[in-house]
Amino acid sequence: MENLLYWAGMLAVAVNSLTGVLDAGRKHMDLIGVMMVGAATALGGGTVRDILLQRQVFWVEDQAYLIVALAITLVVFFSVRGLRLPPRLFLIPDALGLALFTIIGTQIALEWQAPWLVASLLGTITGIVGGVLRDVLCNDVPLVFVRGELYASAAWAGALLLVGLQALSVSPVIAAWAGMATVLGIRLAAMAYRITLPIYSARK
Amino acid sequence: MENLLYWAGMLAVAVNSLTGVLDAGRKHMDLIGVMMVGAATALGGGTVRDILLQRQVFWVEDQAYLIVALAITLVVFFSVRGLRLPPRLFLIPDALGLALFTIIGTQIALEWQAPWLVASLLGTITGIVGGVLRDVLCNDVPLVFVRGELYASAAWAGALLLVGLQALSVSPVIAAWAGMATVLGIRLAAMAYRITLPIYSARK
Amino acid sequence: MENLLYWAGMLAVAVNSLTGVLDAGRKHMDLIGVMMVGAATALGGGTVRDILLQRQVFWVEDQAYLIVALAITLVVFFSVRGLRLPPRLFLIPDALGLALFTIIGTQIALEWQAPWLVASLLGTITGIVGGVLRDVLCNDVPLVFVRGELYASAAWAGALLLVGLQALSVSPVIAAWAGMATVLGIRLAAMAYRITLPIYSARK
Questions:
Q1: Which residues in chain C have Cβ-Cβ distances shorter than 8 Å to B156?
Q2: CB contact under 8 A, B33 and A145
Q3: DSSP chain A
Q4: Best of B116, B129, B200, B203 to mutate (most C CBs within 10 Å, chain C)
Q5: Max mean pLDDT range (A21-35, B75-89, C72-86, C109-123)
Q6: Cβ <8 Å between C32 and B122
Q7: Where are the domains of chain C?
């Protein structure tokens, strides 16, 4: 399990830094700007989780994460910047990063003895913070605030499912897969069909 | 005293999440957006205080705070969204939350052995951060930056009074009431009479 | 060495709070706003470094830093606000603060056993965060995001030089001076000659 978490974390870092570079590239940032956005997107969510849990920050302890994030950024920067890519291409890796980080974050919080509701929220935070940083640094409206595209709610649903299945003594690996599938499924369905949540509205 | 701090903290969380919902609701956010704003407003200030003090984050340790914040948000969301409320109604609970959080934050910092000036600043931070998060997430100008409405200065004055009274061996409970009354009094007076601080101005 | 670090830290706090006041003053903030910007500019970078390293936050432990930041702010506020200063005057102390904080931050991270690449990044963060907070609070575009003015890259280059020289067993004091000269030299040269990094650009 520990080993799986480690490699899933590396994959999530790689996928998220990819979305960061693509977005920063669209805004014609320079090399250091792209590296900052890539690293912030890849490392932001887990950093906030670790600080809230008073845990050693994962990339400060093990610089392999930082090296992966910077390496992906450099490779994509120099290979992709001549290509014209469809602007919303990065939504698929973004959904994958959201799912991976949410499930990893929830799992780590549970192992760190966080209460169940707190663990689900910390997982959601791990999932969404990187993308929020990316969008703020690139001056986009954060996806998490775009109405009619379930984002934080997809993450939270998956995190709660993971917590619930583990409480029912389902094996952690199966619970993790089920949680990830939930996040990805809800997020992709919401993008495809524009599923919405109820909106607070004053009487007209 | 510990018990009083605990319940005052719950009340502050409830009051602040109420202001968050009302503000997010005015911006027609969806359910998850309103919940995020409510939770950030309720928990943000104490979170920053605990991180700066290297203390276990209060709502990670005890999920009752998170449950109160989310419950208030849900109840207000579904009960109030049909009503038309005067837009600045939330300024009164906002002032109450500012006063409660400032005094609680200062008291906790003092118990955590922070030096006196640091304790007063950490109290002020505890008081203002939730509202700043709310206003930023709702795309308002943070109240703390509105000129001519004493906000951070009201909080700081109350925190300094609390620190000073305790240094003079006044009972902590009396010092806390005096500090709260100071924050609330200055804040409400500033709203009513638009009291201002000196402004930095270059020669014309 | 410890003593030198301490006084260099005080100097960096003083210089950075000076740039904060000058910038906040140009925006005609009131007294408390100017104090908040001054303190955030002076203390922000080191705060983020200490939190990421799980180290006691420097100004919470020793309130002399906070007192220096607030004293500089008050003195400058009341002495300078009648003068008309050239708007970009504060770029020189800003470059000095960037260099000082970057080198101090890298040195502290190394002493705290951070891996070398992480230490260089934490030094860069220590250098740039204060200025980013100042510019965000004053509603300027952060200098770090202005294209064609090497800022984060100047800091990172100096931090990497410091790490490299120490790995080669150069004395820490000489390595620190060389690192500082590098940051200052690159930053000032970039301002003077508008040296740029490669920019990510899609094919036209």
A1: 32
A2: yes
A3: -HHHHHHHHHHHHHHHHHHHHHHHHHTT-BHHHHHHHHHHHHHHHHHHHHHHTT---HHHH-THHHHHHHHHHHHHHHHHTTS---GGGGHHHHHHHHHHHHHHHHHHHHHTT--HHHHHHHHHHHHHHHHHHHHHHTTPPPGGGSTTS-SHHHHHHHHHHHHHHHHTT--HHHHHHHHHHHHHHHHHHHHHH-----B-----
A4: B200
A5: C109-123
A6: no
A7: 2-193
